[in-house]
Amino acid sequence: MPGTTHDPLRTGRRTRRTGRMLGAYLTAILLTVLPGASGAVADAGQSTGTPRATLRYTESGVPHILARNFTDLGYGYGYAVAKDNICVLADNFLSVGAERSRYFGPDGAANTTLTSASDNLTSDLHFQRINDSGAVERLGGRPAPQGPRQEMRDIVTGYAQGYNRYLARTGRDGITDPACHGAAWVRPITGTDVYRLFYALMNWTGQGALADGIVGAEPAPGAAPVPADARTADRIEAGLDRTLRADGKGSNGIAVGADGAAGSHSVLLGNPHFPWRGAGRFWQVQLTVPGKLDVSGAGLLGTPFVQKGFNDQIAWTHTLATPRTFGLYEVHLVPGDPTSYLVDGVKEKMTPRTVRVQAKAPDGSLTEVRRTLYETRYGPMINRAVGVGLPWNAATGYALRDANDTNLRGLNTWFGFATARSTADIERSLSATQGAPWINTMATDRAGHAFYGDIQVVPHVTDAQAESCGTPLGKELFPKTGLPVLDGSKSSCAWGSDPDSVEPGLFSPKRLPSLTRQDYVLNSNDSPWLANPHAPLTGYPRIVGDVGTPRSVRTRESLATVEETLQGKGFTKKSMQRMLFTDRSRTAVLAAADTATMCAAFPDGKAPSGNGPVDIDRACRALADWDHTYSLTSRGSLLFERFVLKLATVPGGLWNVPFDPADPVGTPNSLKTTNPEVRRAFGDAAAELHAAGIPLDAALGDHQYVVRGTDRIPMHGAPEALGVLDLITPVWDPGRGNVDVRTGSSYLQVVSFTDDPCPDVSTLVTTSQSADPGSPYYADQTKLYSSGEWLPSRFCEKDILASPDLEVTELS
């Protein structure tokens, strides 16, 4: 039954209101804040007797936050998100506060959704270095666009107040989530903490990804130089993929314009694949300051705003992009002085910074750990990048420059999205703020436009500069990966600038790829080249991405399924939803029939494996009959998944037909089933399932699942290598199968604009709104996801008031 909750700190009571009473009550609230309503809207800090924020909860605990001003809006946001996820948030704030070692010990696991640091001590030293520098505080104090616009400053201030209000209400001992019940590390926060967390997410692909190399950097005069050869470049390329696309992290975005939409003006799919834990979790909300802001969508936990969402005129989403957001400089050291280097023949002294953190000893006492780190004009010294050593020896060393190290501008970017009225406004926000950190943007609007833009933070390193200033390692690495390694001994090798960039060192938005169409644009984490294959994007700098190269199997599936749909009647909201949850595997389309034929040809029904012949009874028929999807009932799909994952280690090419740029969706194809390594991989996969007690033709949902409380929830979808749009990266247990999900489809939205003034939207937070096992919203949307269902989004007032689960909380 609908109800209204007055915050206990205000009245200490809870009342239920039904039907007409509730409608009249909400109307009274709205009359105090809507433009043109009777009564003045109070400025921040004044009291009119109305709530600071009103939280209207609809199905699955989604809050619609209504406030008179932006500070109060942030207040409602901070309170509501803390109510659902206090332990995850507290852990995130503890991490950027550099206090994990103090509470969890130096050797414990770091929060890897914020940094790739190998342990707590490395994480703390990394974040303490940033905190000591005062970078976040300086950026927070700068005027827009370099610093936050006033509305975002107000929201951040309110967010910290709301978070603290919830914590004051419950106290540590009143927290119901066992992950942090009574924990001393749960503490009040400030606006600086909120900025620090946002900043960490902005430079996650630069400093955050290279934390081990920064913290571990120290002179090693006798170390041999890194080989400047193709093998080293290949290792760094693999390390970049492993680190920045960890566990299948990525996204799909499809924006369909008027020419591709059936019965509507446009349709947008947002399908990010993010970690199902920590700062990677999404939380859904609607934010409303009448007359100034009305936006719905989801943000990463700890960020104070919507990052993927929609309003009544536009919808947008993001995918991880290919531009390298950092670069390396090889510095030439002064003989006998490894902390000094030469620029244009002139000696420059590195700046030492002694970083101190507290670490808990085994006996519970605290000890201070000190580490002296060194910085150059380019940035910090580094001795390792994505798993590859970069020695700081007597002659040379390496420094990191991160293009996002001045980026709090993303707050302004997303505020611009939230208030946009067209895809042209989306492009203007991207260009004016240059705050998109490592993401592509896709958007649609009521006018039927479909927009793609890779307008983000990109280091200003031209192809010509990478050639003229590139070191021997850089000349091997840049063509393959777009990662520049430049000669730090020449001032002429500094990153360039364009006059219309927001700040020096970045490419102008005008030099970055974008495309507006009436049919469609899409991206599945490949370069911009085939955002629409009928209008390929080319001519952008190599650091942005490649052109004319093989696309991932997921990109190929995106292009194939969109083109197939457009050959029919075009997209509706429902057909877009069905397309995603069909769970078709492009890898299976390309190779399952070949695999079934190979299986049937094995003598005596046994396949070779690393441990001898393996029984494959029933596997061949299952593969031959398989519909190539990763639905809960599909049979043979789990065996094929384990087989394909093993193919990643098979040396040489896997396909008989090579890649053809003229047919990027269809090629490469035809699996090399005569290759002994391919045949052995199949047998090893079958042996793996036998060892786990899983029939080779088992239904996927019986052995791919997550556990929430006492519920075992089957999961559809598949890992990156299978080319399924609905990507999940499961956790394989050799004795039980896929028993959890590390990364995968997270906040899903399908938005359609029709003649109705209200957008037609369905959403889903696959991890559910709350990480607290005691919450009713801990697993409810996870179960919806399992069954292929969606949540209706309630954006307009009439839809919010019509929710059968409507419940209202006033925050005074």
TrEMBL record:
<dbReference type="InterPro" id="IPR043147">
    <property type="entry name" value="Penicillin_amidase_A-knob"/>
</dbReference>
<dbReference type="InterPro" id="IPR023343">
    <property type="entry name" value="Penicillin_amidase_dom1"/>
</dbReference>
<dbReference type="InterPro" id="IPR043146">
    <property type="entry name" value="Penicillin_amidase_N_B-knob"/>
</dbReference>
<dbReference type="InterPro" id="IPR029055">
    <property type="entry name" value="Ntn_hydrolases_N"/>
</dbReference>
<keyword id="KW-0865">Zymogen</keyword>
<dbReference type="Pfam" id="PF01804">
    <property type="entry name" value="Penicil_amidase"/>
</dbReference>
<comment type="similarity">
    <text>Belongs to the peptidase S45 family.</text>
</comment>
<dbReference type="InterPro" id="IPR002692">
    <property type="entry name" value="S45"/>
</dbReference>
<keyword id="KW-0732">Signal</keyword>
<keyword id="KW-0378">Hydrolase</keyword>
<protein>
    <submittedName>
        <fullName>Penicillin acylase family protein</fullName>
        <ecNumber>3.5.1.-</ecNumber>
    </submittedName>
</protein>
<dbReference type="GO" id="GO:0016787">
    <property type="term" value="F:hydrolase activity"/>
</dbReference>
